[in-house]
Amino acid sequence: MWLNSMKRGFNKKCPRHLNRPMVYLISFTYFLSIFFCLYNWESLMARWRHRNDSKSVLIFAATNYFGKPINNSWLESCPEDVKSYCSITNEETSFSIADGVLFHSRDFNEQLLSEFKFPRRFDVPYVMMTQENPFYSYL
């Protein structure tokens, strides 16, 4: 009897459905703190900061940007370290060695896709670029 009154009193103060998200949050926070302590967070961050910068990144622009070509001039406002290892080209000969393929959503259409003469490369990411709200992108 006393236990039942305690349960009723506890449930009135903090409903059971509100306890579940808090338990998940506390568990997740505990897991992350243990993980970072065990994994040595500093060495992880050091490896991330000192990645292999000797490899340059080439992006193949498969479409234009509102009819204008996408090329290295897009990198003018980027920091110098980005300019040193990243380049953008729309030359078709570069497709086979590109590290990524870029499409602009407004210049991308079904006709372009059917006429796209390059086979799909599954070893590189295909990126759809847009600055529009997805609702207005017609994707």
UniProtKB/TrEMBL annotation:
Fucosyltransferase N-terminal domain mapped to chain residues: 56-136
Keywords: Membrane, Transmembrane, Transmembrane helix
Top-level division of the source organism's lineage: Eukaryota
Transmembrane regions: 21-41
Name under which the protein is recorded: Fucosyltransferase N-terminal domain-containing protein
Phylogenetic classification of the source organism: Eukaryota, Metazoa, Ecdysozoa, Nematoda, Chromadorea
